[in-house]
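User: Fold this one for me? It's Glutaryl-CoA dehydrogenase.
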Amino acid sequence: MTITAPAGSAADPGTHPLERLEADFYGFQDLLTPVEQDAVARVRDFMEREVRPVADDYWERAECPVHLFKPFAELGSVGAAWPETAQFESSAVFRGWVGMELARVDSSFCTFIGVSSGLAMSSIGLGGSPEQRDRWLPPMARGDLIGAFGLTEPLSGSDTARGLRTTATRHGDTWVLNGAKRWIGNATFADVVVVWAKDTADDQVKGFLVRRGAPGFTATKIERKQSLRIVQNADITLVDVEVAEADRLQRIDSFRDLANVLRVTRDGVSWQALGTMIGAYEAAVRYTKEREQFGHPIASYQLVQDKLATALGNITASLGMCVRVAQMQDAGTQRDEHAALAKAFVTTRMRETVALAREVCGGNGITLDTGVARYFADAEAVYTFEGTRDMNHLIVGRSVTGHAAFV
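Assistant: Here's what I get for Glutaryl-CoA dehydrogenase.
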């Protein structure tokens, strides 16, 4: 696919020079093309100008700045993977880098955007017919429509492949959905929710596009969260929800097809974890340079530098893994175990890194004022979703040994 960006567009190179992040210690940014670097610079500017000043307040109130979705989409990075919506030719490294830039400022905002542009659009891009792709992807890429992704259930998380309880029964050209979903981001305000259900006729997983306001569909916000508080997760109930056959994803006939979507989005979570640890690391470095104890900035002490160096090592190793897995995605050589190892490794390193960042900030590290506490709390959700560490290690272990150890 070759797309030429019009002059003056978000893809027009050279207008937004991309400054290298100090956390990009080995210069992976250089792998991005000039057009990609310019697009990243626009995203970074948007996040610093529009999101960072308000992130703490929205996080504390557990509210979502939905009004920022369309302005962000106008930058041209949403839908970059699909020919129907791409504004310029881009790599998987670029698309991952954009997610990293979002999470570097606010992991909740990254999830908010990623649910629609990643999970929902990837479901349609990989599983939809050409007509469905033309119908849904362009308005979603423009920010005119917001998507959600309904897979996890109250009693089904890691065992989704076998334990999906939401059902779909066909009656002529209409499907009837019944069941429940949990932890569904964006569901309280999404224009369309991709709902995954088992066909009662063949017991295979199918995907359905459920539109806002569908009779029998109810989304209730989950309260009292202490991680990714900006994200509006919801419990969904589906009671005799009718969906036309035209709104069934036409290229999804089994869990194996759904797994293709999860493989791509699991990569995105690795980049999100990377951005989360970079954001915490940057906040910690700033704090240690400003905070004085015993007459000197604490950045000048050996034990503090040791923790910062460990954090930077985690970031650098994780960035290298994210980049390589993205390159394999472009080359068509990526397999489930590659995405699984990256997700497990990077989120584990993230957990250690945000803890180190909080530690060097001392007692002040538990407040939003230092800029570390939000990353520390949000990391827990990122560590868990898109497959726990244990489940991803079992995917890798099956590849390594040839034996499946799943229950």
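One thing worth pointing out: The chain has three domains: 28-142, 147-247, 255-401.
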